[in-house]
Structures are given as structure tokens and as C-alpha cells.
Amino acid sequence: MKIIIKEIELTNFRNIEHKIYKFNDWRNAICGKNAIGKSNVLQAIMWLFTSKLLNGSPNDADNKPIGKSDIVVSVKATIQIADEFHTIEKQYAEIIKDEKLIGHTTSYIIDRIAYKTIKDAEERLNSMLGINDRLIAMNPLFIDILDYKVLRKLIIELIGDIKPEMILSNNKFISETLTSFKSFAYDVDAYAKYLSGEIKRAKDDIKTTKTLIAFLDNDTDIKSMRFGIAECDKRLIGKVLSMKKQMSDSQDKIATFETEQAALEKYAEIRLKMLNNNAKAIFQKIKWVLIESNIKEGSYQEVCYPLIVGKSTKFEKGSTSEKVITGIAIIEAIKEATNGNDLPIVFDEGEAFDSESLESKLNTNSQIITAKVNDEFDAPQVKEFK
Fold first, then answer.
1. CA–CA dist 34, 165 (Å, integer)
2. Does residue 276 lie within any of the structural domains?
3. pLDDT at res. 230
4. Each residue of 122-140: pLDDT tens digit?
5. Are residues 34 and 131 in the same domain?
């Protein structure tokens, strides 16, 4: 179901004292010269629907005009859902006493009903819009905002996690080799660091033992014994033999730990392959990096970031247009997987796109609202985005 913002009314929002903006159902660009408040209209939309700004900031106080405290900040939208129209208004006010700030209030009025708590208002919005996490549904640059752990949890919930038993039960070499894996709670990172540390410790022991043996081997009494002189202290010979046995044991340990490393690396490779297959089923052309590992160096990280569509570039390294295109593709995949509604998609720097990019790459049925530099307008004006 498509949800459309028909108009938005801003009062005392940053540099906009009062203004109503009307939007078409398809592609919209808020046009004007630089630094006149185009982005503030986008910020107002995001604040109203997601309680965050475009950069993810949750600070309501960022939205009041600079230097003013005795005013009410208000953003009111008229939206269309199917054949029904609804109004959503959000207000922010600071409480001043004796010229001092002692608190602030944030409140919602939805379809003319004032909600006593933010929680109640959020529940009503979730029910009305059909999507709880509207930041992800509306902001194609949400990848830059979310903590990777939050993002990974979302992606894994969508694609399905890979349980250790799914790998161990189907691979005899791994299951028979990684006998201590369970005691690490199947924590690959902890186990990889343990193996790397044990190998280093064994190699250090060998190095130390070799040095001691060389020292004892050069001892005058040892040399004398080789020629059968009885005065040689036999205990030194026994000590050398014991050291050589220890060194042999350390070498055996290294071989065992390295075999475990190989099995753990195989486990990580299989897990990554299975996760990638799951991700491909949901996200198709969008590739995700979910694991970065170097088992021999004792490192294994469960990460989460997408690559730019059609490239091997990390999302954070992409251009604005590449990020938006990739972000919208991710939003569409999530909507498809969760049967989510088409909420408006909001982003800045619309001038990064040309008409060809719009037609061929912004593949979404959602209403788009962006901002675009146009020196013809001294105040923000809504135009068709083309």
C-alpha cells in the first residue's frame, strides 16, 4: 500500500517561520539556492515520521530557531493512505521559568486526537503506517546512520541465521577437529584468538628451549662427556634430553592447533557462503559483507555493510547517488520480504541525479521527496523531480 504526503506545514521549524508545502504523488524536489532551508523541509519530514533527522540525530531541540525559546515548533502533515486522508502533527516546546530552561515537551496530535505519551502516539503511527522502523523505510542512507550491530541484527533476522549445528552435523572433519569449540560457546572470534595465542606460545617455548639447549651444548662439561670423560655432570645431559622432548611436544601442539585453525577457517567459509546464499535470496543484486576473518591471525568479525550496487565498493565509500540507489534497492528488498507499505523516501542532494538516473535507477513505487539546488528560487519551492 502506498502512503503519500500530500502537504506539510512547518511552524517555527529552524529558519522557517511558517510555510505549507504541497507534493505530488510521485517525484518531488524542493528547489532553491544554497543555504535557504531546502534541507530543513526534509529534516521536518523525517522528524515527524521517524523522530530523527537525516543524520540520525534524535535531539528535538535541534529543530527550534536559533536564539528562540518561547515558541512552539510544529510540523503537520496531511497524508493519503489508499482512499483515506489523515493528519499527523508533532510539536516541541521548551518550558521556561524565571528565564531559565527547566524542561521541554514533545507531543503528537493524530487525526485531531492529542496523545498523552510518545509511546501511545508511536503505537498509533505504527498501526496507521504499517511499519515500525520508519527510519529504514524512508531514508536510503540509513546504512550510514545505524550502528552495525543493529543493522546486522536486522539483516540476519531477514535472511535467517546459520546455527553451528547446521555446519558441524554435515562436516566430519570440522566436527571431529573442533572438539573444544562448544566450550567457547561457538564463538569463532574467541576460539580463533585462543588458537593463535596457543600457537604463538608454543613457538616462543620452542625458541626459548633452542636457546637453552645451545647454551648447554656449548658447556665444557657437555663437550667433555662426548669424549667419555666421567666428570661430566650427567644431570645436564638429562636436562637437554628433557628439553628436546618438550620442544617436540610443542611442535606437536602447533601441528594440532594449526589443524584446528584450518577446520575453523573452513567453518567460517561455509558459514559465510550459507549466509551469502540466504542474503542473495532476499536482496538479489545487493551484496552484503557479513564476515571478515583471518583465522591464522586470530581474527574473526561479524560485520554488516552492503556493497554499492554493481560494484565492489563499500557503501560508505560510494558517492551520494550510488548510496541512494543502493539504499533504495535495499528498502525495496526489505519491503518485498516483509510485505511492507510504500512510505515516502526522503534524501538530500537530489542534484546528484540526472533524468536518466531517475528513470532507470531509482526503482521504487514510493513517493520521493528530495532537495535540489536551483538558483532561480530565493525561497524553497516544490517542483517535480526530473
1. 57
2. no
3. 45
4. 999 999 999 889 999 999 9
5. yes
Structural domain harbouring 222? 174-271
Lowest mean pLDDT segment, chosen from 62-71, 105-114, 172-181, 344-353: 62-71
- Which residues does residue 245 pair with via DSSP β-bridges, in sequence order? none
Asked if 99 and 35 touch (Cβ cutoff 8 Å), the reply is: no
Residues 344, 260 share a domain: no
Pair 146, 249 in one domain: no
Is residue 279 one of the residues assigned to a domain? no
Could you tell me if 8 and 156 lie in one domain? yes
Phi/psi at 86 (5° precision): -135, 155
pLDDT tens, position by position, 79-107: 999 999 999 999 999 887 777 877 889 99
- Cell reading at 153: 541484527
| Of 189, 157, 175, the residue nearest 275 (C-alpha) | 157
